[in-house]
Amino acid sequence: MNVILWIVQGLLVLVFGFSAIVKGTQSTQRAVELGMTGVADVPLRLMRFIAACEVLGVIGLVLPYATGILPVLTPLAAVGLGMILVPAAGIHLRRREPLTAMGNVVLLGLCVFVAIGRWPT
Question: Splitting the chain (121 residues) into consecutive groups of 10 residues, what average pLDDT does each group show?
């Protein structure tokens, strides 16, 4: 189970890391061109804030559990990233992008899996 959790955490790091880089460094128009259509109507400052939250979430997915320093932060980071996905799915549904919304739901499921799997017993 530990190996599967690390694989899922790695996948989440890749997805949210890419998202954070694009949202944190590109214009809204460029982010949309790169496939992040959900930010089309989001103010730039909010997009940058989401990127910062994603960076913290990516760090939290790996570092605490890998180092053994406050490992409870890893499932909490998964919960935090999952919280970003809920409104993201809603935005994509309003934009009539059901496949993208479904992708958000799948990622949410992976976040829940990590949160439960890494929760201290």
Answer: 97 98 96 94 95 98 96 97 96 96 98 97 82
DSSP string, the chain: -HHHHHHHHHHHHHHHHHHHHHHHHS-HHHHHHTT-GGGTTS-HHHHHHHHHHHHHHHHHHHHHHHHTSSTTHHHHHHHHHHHHHHHHHHHHHHTT-HHHHHHHHHHHHHHHHHHHHHS--
Burial class of 67 by CB neighbour count within 10 A (0 to 12, 13 to 18, 19+)? exposed
pLDDT of residue 121: 82
- CA 16/CA 57 separation, integer angstroms: 8
Find the Cα–Cα–Cα–Cα dihedral 3, 79, 48, 59, rounded to 10°: -40
Closest CA to 75 of 9, 4, 27: 9
End-to-end CA distance of the chain: 15
How confident is the model at residue 86, as a pLDDT?
A: 96
